[in-house]
Amino acid sequence: MFWGLSSALDLYDEYLKAFKIKDEPLAEAEQVGPGGDDGLNTLNILICGGADPRHVIKTLAKRYTHGVQPKLNIYVLDGCAEIIARNMLLLAIALEDPESFSLVSKAHLFMDLYGNAVIRPSSHHYMAAKARTLLQMVTDEEKLQRLAPMLNIDGLKYKERDGLEMAFSFWQPQPWHVYEVTKYWEQRSRALLGTRYDHRNGAFDWDLSMTLKSRGGEQICSQEYRYWRESGVAFVFPEYEQCKPNKTLAAGLVRNGRTFLNRGYVGDIQTGPFCGFGLRSTEERMHHSVHGDNDYRATDVTERNLMEFFHELQTQTAYEHDPTRSRRYGSVHLLMTPLLNHQEVDADGQASYDRPWIPVPGVTVHYMSPAEMLQLQQGAPRWNNMFDIAYVAYNYFTFLSPAFFQALRAQALMVLETKLMTVERREQVQDYEAKAKEILKQAGLKAVINYQAINAKNMLLKYKKTDKEEVEDAAEDEAEVDPETEPPIEYKVEALTLEEIVVEPETGEKSHNADLEDTLKEEPSIESETHSLEEIKPETNQVDMDLLGLGEPTSNPELHQEMEDST
Questions:
Q1: Helix (H) / strand (E) containing 198
Q2: Kind and range of the H or E run holding 487
Q3: 286 phi and psi angles, rounded to 5 deg
Q4: Which of 30, 83, 298, 561 has its CA 20 to 30 Å from the CA of residue 70?
């Protein structure tokens, strides 16, 4: 609910690869754009249930690498106002002014608020200070345009805006704003494990070693996973101590006088926040392991990837990672200190973070009302033929209907998250994937890759909608039939049955073995064989000459006699 279970994507790059569009400025005018009319001028992207801004961050960070940079309208749809507020905070960290934080500090701040149930005091102070700025941005259109002109909240109803106001107010360090996240975490763990709670370390190791690691989570180390399952703290560094509750994980806030009622913690407690940025990186050395022990944790990979994205957002240049920056804690068992109690009254003298965000020209992030998901499911006319790219999380799969696909343009990419990185049984994961493929096929979408030929585990399903007959698709369909694997031609040969070979004593008939002996006694008829060869030979010469284009066979008797002698 608070983080996705798939790796971050550059959605624009996925669109280019799906339709084999040249990413060159000179070819911009030649490309057939969204809807087939105006070229690659504008792309509308829908993210349903992304749960975090990982796709938005990577799409913006990699934007400078593309030769063609169309205007991007990114529509973000999540389930409640608290998740929208959290996403706005995380996006604000990514686009925070470089003078406020160094690259490393910004990455650690993002990781703390993104994946830890208990956070550092500095992160808590930033959360409270930034919440006040975001509250002013939501209620003051002029300040929103001055600080973050890329944000658009026109799609939020007044009910959702009131929810944002309650979330930002709840994040303030007031003694009556209590959020006992460690208590809620333990209650959820006890309810999940039941009688196995006393032996929870064995259950944690089983989920990681037997399930997640076999599905693509090899980078997750046992020590960081067990500590997260136990305390809710996923990203740990030795120099930090967490003692403050992460109020961005609160959901279902209802005002009760000057306090707020909440639903506790209702997020994920089985997979962890490692999938979004911590499973893969561009440096293979980060994934080196010996006998299953990784040199680097998923925490270290997350740190490296975030530093890359934030550097590219700030400088619009390629990132070169310092190998000495990442510490090899993969096989090291860090001594974790007990979590400290927090005091809400120590927030005096907080800094204010009200500087303008890093500008991203040509990009607008639209926050949509959660009620729009039902409108999309029912095929509301205002969303028809709207989106070029649609990403749908696995927990939003039930909202997919035939009317939903009317929101896709004639040339559109559909990306669907699977249940691969959950701890559900393999049969349930396979059933979900089969149902997803079936509904996408019924909607007339084609797979971007051949999922039948690639016998691999799919974290994402990528399908495309197109109204053109692509030559490449036809070639791929023909290539799926390997000539070497075609069944051989079967020649009909009459074989003898057992009854024909064996002679019954009472019949007195001659067996086939006796016929064979009589045949062998007779001398072969060479003349008949020669005669048949002479009959076949002119016809064979005729065929060969026709293939060579030399016309009729020769009538020279001497040449004909030489050919007979050679035969």
A1: none
A2: none
A3: -70, -15
A4: 83
Which amino acid would we find at residue 138? V
Q: What are phi and psi of 293, to 5 degrees?
A: -95, 115
Report residue 111 as tokens: 């990781």
Picking from 127, 131, 88, the residue whose alpha carbon sits closest to that of residue 109 is: 127
Question: Which residues 6+ apart lie within 8 Å of 407 measured at CB?
Answer: 46, 376, 379, 383, 384, 385, 386, 387, 390
Decide: helix, strand or coil at residue 519: helix
- Closest C-alpha among 209, 236, 222 to residue 294: 222
For residue 119 the two structure tokens come to 């956070």
Rounded to 10 deg, the angle between the 103-115 and 81-94 helix axes is 170
Helix pair 557-566, 526-548: axis angle to 10 deg: 120
Distances (CA, A) of 93 to 78, 96, 115, 117, 196: 19, 5, 14, 18, 39
Number of Cβ atoms within 10 Å of the Cβ of 316: 12
Q: How far is CA 366 from the centre of its chain?
A: 22
544 exposure class (CB count in 10 Å sphere: 0-12, 13-18, 19+): exposed
Please report where in the chains the tokens 């971007």 appear, as a residue: 448
Is residue 276 within 8 Å of residue 269, measured between CB atoms? Answer: no
Q: What is the pTM of this model?
A: 0.79
* E strand or H helix that includes residue 468: none
| Sign of the dihedral through C-alpha 9, 11, 16, 19 | positive
Contacts of 503 (CB under 8 A, 6+ apart): 509, 510, 511
Structure-block tokens of residue 50: 């992304």
Residue 119, beta-bridge partner list: 244
Are 245 and 181 in contact by the 8 Å Cβ rule? The answer is yes
Neighbours of 145 (CB within 10 A): 12
pLDDT (tens place) for every residue of the chain, 567 residues total: 799 999 999 999 999 999 999 887 754 444 545 444 445 689 999 999 999 999 999 999 999 999 999 999 999 999 999 999 999 999 999 999 999 899 999 999 999 999 999 999 999 999 999 999 999 999 999 999 999 999 999 999 999 999 999 999 999 999 899 999 999 999 999 999 999 999 999 999 999 999 999 999 999 999 999 999 999 999 998 878 888 999 999 999 999 988 899 999 999 999 999 999 999 999 888 888 887 788 899 999 999 999 999 999 999 999 998 887 777 766 666 656 555 555 554 555 467 788 999 999 999 999 999 999 999 999 999 999 999 999 999 999 999 999 999 999 999 999 999 999 999 999 999 999 999 999 999 999 999 988 876 667 889 999 999 876 553 443 444 334 333 333 443 434 344 444 444 444 444 444 444 444 454 444 444 444 444 434 444 444 444 444 344 444 444 555 445 555 554
Burial level of 170, CB count in 10 A (0-12/13-18/19+)? Answer: buried
Contact call for residues 3 and 52 (beta carbons, < 8 A) = yes
* 470, two tokens: 């692509």
Q: What type of residue is 64? A: Y
